[in-house]
Design brief:
Blueprint lengths: L5 H45 L4 H26 L4 H4 L25
Length: 113
């Protein structure tokens, strides 16, 4: 049933195309962000290797930068819709009762009498 006519169909297809284009742009920008994050972490590790910064401090900074930048990339992808929210936060939630790693509850004893 078409209530709005052909122009509405064109508007909807243009909107879908625009959303897909934006998702692709975010996907490639998140890849660039990942590449930049890797370069930043490598630079911090190189500072530790050269002795300009202590090795333990360089490892600490590199690990924290990697986690922060990965979280930023995931947040951007969730906001735009290229990463489903449930996949992004799956590891943050405790397992639900009755999940795959739980034992089934014991059945009640049979009634007497």
């Amino acid at each position: 049933m078409r209530l709005l006519g052909k122009s509405a169909d064109l508007d909807a297809s243009a909107m879908v195309e625009r959303v897909e284009t934006e998702r692709l742009a975010v996907h490639f920008s998140s890849r660039r962000m990942n590449r930049r994050a890797a370069l930043v972490v490598a630079a911090v590790l190189a500072l530790g290797a050269t002795g300009l910064v202590g090795a333990d401090l360089a490892l600490f900074l590199a690990a924290n930068l990697a986690l922060a930048l990965a979280g930023l990339v995931a947040a951007v992808r969730v906001a735009v819709g290229t990463l489903p929210y449930d996949r992004a936060v799956r590891h943050l939630r405790p397992p639900l009762p009755g999940g795959p790693n739980t034992t089934p509850p014991t059945p009640p004893p049979p009634p007497r009498g």
